[in-house]
Amino acid sequence: MSWLSNFNPLESIRKLQVHENSLAIWKKRAQWLLFLVALLFIATQALTRFYLWPQVERNKATFEQAISQTLGVNLKIENIKTGWDFLWPAFKIDNVQLYELGESNSPKLSIPQVTGKLSWETLWKLEPHFHDLSFDDALIQVQRDSKGNWNIAGIKLDQSSAGYQFGNWLFEQDSLEVKNARINWLDQRFQSTQYSIDIESLSLKNSWFKHNIDLNLKTPWNTNTASIKADFRHNLFGNAGNWKDWIGRLEWDVNELNIAKINQLFESPINVISGQLNTQGRTYIDGGALDGGSTKLAAQNLHIEWPRLGAPLKIAKVDAELEQRTSGKKMSVSAPLLKWQATEKSASKELNGISIYWDMAANIDAINHAGVKADEIDINLVEQLAKQFPLPKDIAEFIKKYQPSGMLKNLDANWHAEASKLPFNIKIPGFNESHYKLSFDFEKANLKPEKKGHLSIANLTGRLYATELGGELTLDSEDTFISLPQILENDNLALDLIQGKVKWIKKDNGAEYQVSKLKLKNESANLTFDANYKAKTSKMSADLYIKADIHEASVKNLTRYFPLEMSKDARTYLNAALKEGWIRNGQIHIHGDPLHIPFNTKFPGIFELNLPIEQVQYSPAPAEDKKQGQWSEFSDVHGTVAFKGPKLLLDLKSASFESVQLSNIEGVVDDIVSRSATLKINGLAKGSSQELLKYYVDSPSGKSIEAISKKIEIVGNAELKINIEMPINDTKQTKLQGEVKLEKNQARINQTLDVQEITGDILFSEENIIGRNLRAQLLGGDLLIDNANKLPWQSSSDMKVSGKVDINQLIQALNTSDVSEIKKIQAKSIKMFSSSVKRNLPNFK
Q1: How many alpha carbons lie under 13 Å from residue 54 in its C-beta half-sphere?
Q2: Which DSSP string do the residues of 526-585 spell out, in sequence order?
Q3: What is the Cα–Cα distance from 73 to 185, expressed in whole angstroms?
């Protein structure tokens, strides 16, 4: 089908004409409607103005009855005059009085004159509504009974209604102007008291759902004039007379407000004993809740008592700027500026950036979630703020027990009462569900326990996050002092640096602590360690795990960093044996019940210490009584000190005694905690023969030849191999086996007898000293001294001496020497000649 078949110009023109005719008809109808409305308006105006409204003036009693029925009171007026103001019926009423129903003696409201204009709403609502209403010098009687019910100008209002009916009617009036009104208030709610309130001016403007109030008044609770302004609207389906349905802004300016008297007007758990307040500010309200605003406060002589505070709060002076915010159900009050003086004579303190937040609740005692935030705050003030909330018992006890002080930054402390029902064996991480949460950075914090024997800290810096299920402590502090009573050998630790994290988790079976990459550094130690500790319970013993790297540490007093529960004997020996020197790149591995460190077969566990030492001064057998002999200390010791459980291992690669160099010294104590612990040492020494002799003479075993050794001077070097078994608790019982290899030494005995080319071995034990293949040139000849059985530690004194001497030198030596001294030297040094001395007579001169 062609498009031409669908195109009919005549039909289109015909339809257009019908449409234009229909539009014209509706225009005529609209014009008639407007004409009728205008006619009705004019007729109503004329009827009201010239007939109905003048009837009011002539029928005063009917007017009184209509108003009385509306307000629920008896209205009495002296005179009423009606008029007209443009489109509004106007009136002037003289001597208005309101009485309670059934009373006629004492008016509840007295107004000399009222002027205004009637609103056209009166016609279709059949109750008086005013386009504007104004009066001066009113006297209003207000009463609140013991149950909290109100009587305002004879209008009875139940406390549960909060005056909705009267308020709804009041906020439906277009305009209300009041000047110089007085309210006499008899308050019988808590005690019978009469108050007088003067309203200097009140302006009320209402337009549909919008309302504006401007009020200036004087009260018994403040000096000068208090100013209150409100600009709000009420909800579409709400009550204008119910402030909980308001949305808008409220402003005020009040001077010298007596908050103690204000406190008496309300039922509150807070008891204000005294206090005066100057305040100005504004706030926004939404559905009966605060929705933001700012306030300036200046208060003096505050004295507040509240069970949550614990002790009365007394402040001589406080100046503050407060800001209120609301986000969802969360409300907060912050203080960009807060200054106060505790007493008139005390210095002014300043705290900025603190805020308190809470979830909306019916009243302050119904709050089950609240918290405190602060950019920076003194811990002492935190304690005062914390007492305002029902904090968990462990936090309250910690504050009381340790009396913390210092500065906190980025504080966020909050609690939630319902969360206390959670099971405490929940596996975290994140600690998302808890009764309380506490986080803050702390700087130069101190813990000063009220009793001795508890943890104390000075000058600690870091961050804390804690809940009732656990927490995390991040440390980054310098120049810190920590006291750990009954934990380490030395209670007091002075630390140049402490860095790392400490976590703890609370479970049904006790607490568990985790230490991660904790770095400790001071002048004597630099180490990093991980640790885990499970506290002892009724079913399980304590469990300690430590894995540490000792970057550098002084060996002097090293054991002060060891657990106090480690064997005292082991700590005593290490502390006395290791003196000057350093540990570098050492390792510690401990796992088990700390009560049984260093563990054994009965109490298994891991106790491994690997301590590479450098430049150490080592005393193998520390002795208190040096007069009885002492195994001399080694200096410049390099090697390793190790623990494998209770077994102590010494691997000293090099050391020095005077000019003697020692090497490959190995030592072992099989059980350091045993009362019969014995140190077994073997090693090799090379150096001056005289120094080797001195080392032996100074020992408990060599004290018996000390006098003789002073008569002997040796020149040359020697090599010493020695094995020592030394009871740690009784070094007098030391057993030793030694061998000295001499190579071309020279000796001078008693300043007279010279011995040359001394070679061979001297074998000694704690009991005997003998020679083996010992050769020397003496008195012009050669001598060979050898033992009979080759075992110096056996109880045999037999030696074999052979050789030749020059008889003349022998006679000369005997003539110039003290024979008794020579005999003593012979007896002590080689015991006695038990074999014949063979002489080569041909060599006599």
Answers
A1: 6
A2: EEEEEEEEE---SSS--EEEEEEEEEEEESTTGGGGSBTTS-HHHHHHHHHHB-S-EEEE
A3: 18
Dihedrals φ, ψ of 825, to 5°? -60, -45
Please state, in angstroms and rounded to a whole number, the distance separating the CA atoms of residues 437 and 417.
12
Output the pLDDT for position 474.
93
Low-confidence ranges of the chain (pLDDT < 50): 1-4, 419-433, 790-796, 819, 821-845
Which candidate, 458, 374, 370, 371, places its Cα nearest to that of 408?
A: 374
Rounded CA separation 182/200 (Å): 9
Integer Cα distance of 179 and 7 in angstroms: 79
For residue 347, give the 3-state DSSP assignment.
coil
The residue among 255, 252, 249 whose CA lies nearest residue 285 is 249
Which single residue is written with the structure tokens 């406190």? Answer: 263
- 4 Rama sector, left if φ>0, alpha if ψ -120 to 50, beta otherwise: alpha
- What's the length of the chain? 845
Helix orientation angle between 393-402 and 379-386, rounded to the nearest 10 degrees: 140
Tokens 């001499």: give the residue.
742
Q: Which helix (H) or strand (E) covers residue 771, if one does?
A: strand 769-778
Query: Residue 742 and residue 687: Cα distance in Å, rounded?
Result: 10
Strands 150-152 and 210-218: unpaired
The helix (run of H) or strand (run of E) holding residue 26 is helix 9-47
Of 101, 180, 221, 197, the C-alpha closest to 141 is 197
**Coil, strand or helix at 17:** helix
pTM equals 0.62
Given this model, what pLDDT does residue 14 score?
Answer: 53
- 620: buried, middle or exposed (CB in 10 Å: 19+, 13-18, 0-12)? buried
CA dihedral 380, 385, 387, 393 (to 10 degrees): -80
How far apart, in Å, are the Cα atoms of 152 and each of 183, 544, 554, 735?
Answer: 10, 74, 86, 110
Q: What integer pLDDT is reported at residue 661 of this predicted model?
A: 81
Cα 26-32-35 angle, rounded to 5 deg: 145
Amino acid 830: pLDDT: 39
Strands 634-644 and 606-618: antiparallel
pLDDT digit string (tens) for 546-596?
A: 999 999 988 887 777 776 666 677 677 777 777 888 989 999 999 998 878
Burial of residue 196, with CB atoms counted within 10 A of its CB: 0-12 exposed, 13-18 middle, 19 or more buried: exposed
Nearest to 472 by CA among 423, 529, 512: 512
Instruction: Give CA–CA dist 590/607, Å, rounded.
Output: 5
Q: DSSP class of residue 603?
A: S
Instruction: Please list the alpha-helical segments (H only) found in 387-513.
Output: 393-402
629 touches 699 (CB < 8 A) = yes
Whole-number Å distance between alpha carbons of 236 and 839: 140
Helix (H, G, I), strand (E, B) or coil at 264: coil
Is the bond preceding residue 128 a cis peptide, omega within 30 degrees? no
- Are 460 and 442 in contact, with CB atoms under 8 Å apart? yes
At residue 364's C-alpha, the angle toward residues 363 and 368, to 5°, is 100
User: How many CB atoms lie under 10 A from the CB of residue 281?
Assistant: 18
Q: What is the largest CA-CA distance in the chain?
A: 181
Q: Taking a C-beta distance cutoff of 8 angstroms, is the pair 59, 76 a contact?
A: no
